[in-house]
Amino acid sequence: MKFRNVSGLRGEVAVPGDKSISHRSIMFGSIARGITEVRHFLQGADCLSTISCFRNMGIDIENNGGAVLVRGKGLRGLQQPDCVLDCGNSGTTTRLISGILSAQDFSVTLTGDASIQKRPMKRIIEPLSLMGARIESVNGNGCAPLRIQGGPLHGISYRSPVASAQVKSSILLAGLYADGETSVTEPYLSRNHTELMLRHFGADIRSEERSDGACACVRPARELYGASIDVPGDISSAAFFLCAGLMVPNSEILLKHVGVNPTRAGILQVCRAMGGDISVLDPSEDSGEPAADLLVRSSSLHGTVIEGAIIPTLIDELPMIAAMACFAEGETIIRDAAELKVKESNRLEVMVKNLAAMGADVTETEDGMIIRGGRPLHGAVVDSRLDHRIAMTFAVAGLCAEGETEVLGSECVDISYPEFYRDLERLASWRGLSFVQ
Ligand code: S3P
Predict the structure, then answer these.
(1) pLDDT confidence of 227, banded at 50, 70, 90?
(2) Of 230, 262, 291, at which residue does a domain stop?
(3) Among 25, 191, 388, which residue has the most ligand 1 atoms within 8 Å of its CB, making it the best to mutate?
């Protein structure tokens, strides 16, 4: 798809449901007893992969495109699938489901697309094995396909070297089935949707911030109970409009009912530190998850430093923030973000390459990048590497660059935001202007 300069973005957007919360609602609903009703479920390819995995294990999941009904069969109600479970492009599906499968009394093989088969799984294989799981990388390279022979598990106290909600959640889910308490300490607090939602389903789980990191601790569960879930809009999807609204002159965008859980909302802090005009309006809370409307207006931006504890709270937004930094005066430094190398693509490498192709002054570092902003970007042909967040980032960058920007593989936005181009086009067409398709 091709994009060109627009002279303003105006209007309202209700971004689709949060991807992390949507995944968890299906997984926890499947292993809970009774019905779980999920409203504003994200109908993106990743969350549909999660639904299909649990259907293959005998769970009745009704998806009418609006609400989703999960008829859970309890902690011990999953059946051995008669096929390989396909997690598609989804790291969350692969890692979280592995925690659950480690405790089942059957064996199963999990796989996914070419990207998933390159992503590191040792980070869950190691702790789950310490709990007693028999889990192996079929090709011996620490990646999927994974073969898991479930069985009895022990509780462990695990110190994770990375601040990763996927690692933390995988271990906590296995911990529901263990013979004693399980705790995970991570260097910085990562998104806490698992902790909040498991509590909502009746699990005994607590979290605390300690001097040596953030700790979550779960006790073995006898049963979880189906619950009602209202999924807020995904702040990681809203991020593209937040940044576009700040970057494109003459813009004013209202983003309705976006999740603003503090473990996800680092982008709001960073935008403000860069001089961005963002108001948080009409706050509310559903099942412990805070949400609000976000009003964003074009702003004159300056560089900042992004590092340390804030990184896990905006990890998926860093590609968009890096592109925005090209339009900010002065230097922006991103540090402590080596995790970007092991996302759906190597996001450090891809961002630096694509931004440089558009004329940006950007240098890759070991764990981040340095962007010297304030010089105009020009259109270019950029490869999304089939990474949804990269595709959306360069669609937005293309709206602020001189000339035409072509994003290769742009259809991959299906993973997290199937209606993205339609929503962007609507905001761009307030004066009858549009980007090129
Ligand atoms: C997710 C956690 C993050 C994030 C991913 C979704 C989750 O990954 O990048 O898009 O739902 O738990 P890590 O926890 O591995 O950093």
Answers:
(1) very high
(2) 230
(3) 191
Task: Say whether pLDDT at 257 is over 70.
Answer: yes
Q: Which position among 316, 383, 387, 423 bears the catalytic label? A: 316
For residue 384, the model assigns a pLDDT of: 98
Residue 374 domain flag: yes
Overall average pLDDT of the 298-327 stretch: 98
Average pLDDT for 158-174: 98
> Using CA atoms in the order 109, 114, 120, 121, what is the torsion angle rounded to 10 degrees?
-10
CA of 170 to the centre of ligand 1 (A): 11
Range of the domain at 308: 2-16+232-431
Is the per-residue pLDDT at 437 higher than 70? no
Do 254 and 222 belong to one domain?
no
> Ligand 1: which residue has its CA nearest to atom 10?
316
DSSP track, 136-197 = EETTSSSSSSEEEE---B---EEE-SS--HHHHHHHHHHHTTBSS-EEEEESS----HHHHH
Residues 411, 423 within the same domain:
yes
Indicate the number of domains in the chain: 2
Residues 99 and 164 both lie in one domain: yes
Residues 358 and 214 placed together within one structural domain of the fold = no
Q: Is 179 a catalytic residue?
A: no
288 and 179, same structural domain? no
Pair (285, 422) in one structural domain? yes
Which string of b and e fits 350-364 if b means at least 16 CB within 10 Å? bbbebbebbbbebeb
For position 355, what pLDDT does the model report? 98
Q: Is the pLDDT confidence value at 434 over 70?
A: no
Inter-residue contact 304 to 330 (CB < 8 Å): no
- With respect to residue 102, please indicate whether it lies within any of the assigned structural domains: yes
Close Cβ partners of 21 (under 8 Å, ≥ 6 residues apart):
193, 197, 229, 231, 232, 259, 289
Q: Are 326 and 371 in contact (CB under 8 A)?
A: yes
Residue nearest to atom 16 of ligand 1 (CA): 164
**CATH code assigned at 187:** 3.65.10.10
Nearest by Cα to 63 from 38, 85, 100: 38
Q: Is the pTM of this model over 0.90?
A: yes
For 57-69, the pLDDT digits (tens) are 999 999 998 799 9
Note the pLDDT of residue 287. Answer: 84
3-state secondary structure of 408: strand
The arithmetic mean of pLDDT across residues 217-242, rounded, is 98
